[in-house]
Write a structure and sequence with these properties.
- Helix content is about 35%, strand content about 20%.
- The protein has about 270 residues and is α+β, with helices and mostly antiparallel strands.
- The N terminus is likely disordered.
Length: about 270
């Protein structure tokens, strides 16, 4: 039975039970809660139901809890990046709660950096440029695992990016911990057309010029400045002399298929 009338009190109580189930789960169980298919989601839902019945006077699931389970779940962390609990990413952003984001800097064998422009349909920074790929770290994931997953989802490359550093990012929308990774890509990429409207490989000089552009993601600009501060600048290769906006556009590709039972927004 599902109740929709006056759900707030029961939703709060049962949501605590759901969080307990997820927090106590193994990585495999946590991944099934995120929902790769209807069967795994149903199994997780039934587990929550059985745990909830003995502690509730009526033992019912409210609609708000089902919607919460189907949302993008992240781990809320503290000022030391230690896990506090599980929340939906939308709640984390709305309330200003710290959570984790994994990003990846991709370079080709010539040392150029992959830069892309976000599609106009994205909810965060539509049409803006970014020098990093990435997204939220999900429940029970490490930064490295999240970076590898995002890399495959966004450009179809399967490899293990190297962790470089992390910092607490103030964020233009909400604060979060940003973990930056690096990887050399020596194979053709397949950008996800839903997320990436344009992409190109830029020299260091071209990238430094683009970072100052008004349409560059502010959080990515902060990450770039911190990156340069801790890493010696490599000698820039001489490019074609063209600006990022008048360089020949490469094919957009279609990227990998998106998994999971919820909508996942890029950072």
């Amino acid at each position: 039975m599902i109740l929709v009338e006056n759900p707030s009190a029961r939703a709060s109580s049962l949501r605590g039970t759901v969080q307990h189930v997820i927090n106590a789960a193994s990585l495999k169980e946590a991944q099934s809660v995120r929902g790769g298919d209807s069967g795994s989601f149903g199994s997780a839902l039934w587990t929550t139901w059985r745990w909830a019945v003995p502690t509730q006077s009526h033992g019912v699931l409210v609609l708000s809890d089902i919607l919460w389970l189907m949302s993008e779940l992240v781990e809320r962390v503290d000022d030391r990046d230690e896990v506090l609990t599980v929340v939906s990413r939308s709640d984390a952003i709305r309330e200003g709660w710290l959570h984790r984001v994994a990003t990846i800097v991709c370079r080709d064998p010539e040392g150029r950096t992959l830069v892309h422009r976000r599609t106009e349909g994205t909810s965060r920074f539509p049409g803006h440029f970014n020098w990093m790929l990435g997204g939220a770290v999900e429940v029970a994931e490490t930064y490295e695992q999240a970076a590898a997953r995002e890399l495959e989802e966004e450009i179809g490359v399967r490899t293990c990016p190297k962790f470089v550093f992390k910092f607490r990012c103030t964020g233009s929308i909400s604060p979060y911990w940003l973990g930056l990774h690096e990887v050399v890509v020596d194979e053709p990429i397949k950008p996800d057309a839903e997320e990436i409207a344009w992409h190109d490989w830029l020299t260091e000089h071209e990238l430094c010029e683009l970072v100052r552009h008004d349409a560059f993601v502010p959080d990515a600009r902060e990450a770039f400045e911190r990156y340069l501060a801790i890493r010696p600048r490599t000698q820039s290769r001489v490019g074609s002399g063209q600006t990022p906006t008048d360089r020949p556009r490469e094919g957009r590709g279609h990227g990998g298929q998106r998994g999971g039972g919820h909508a996942r927004e890029r950072w």
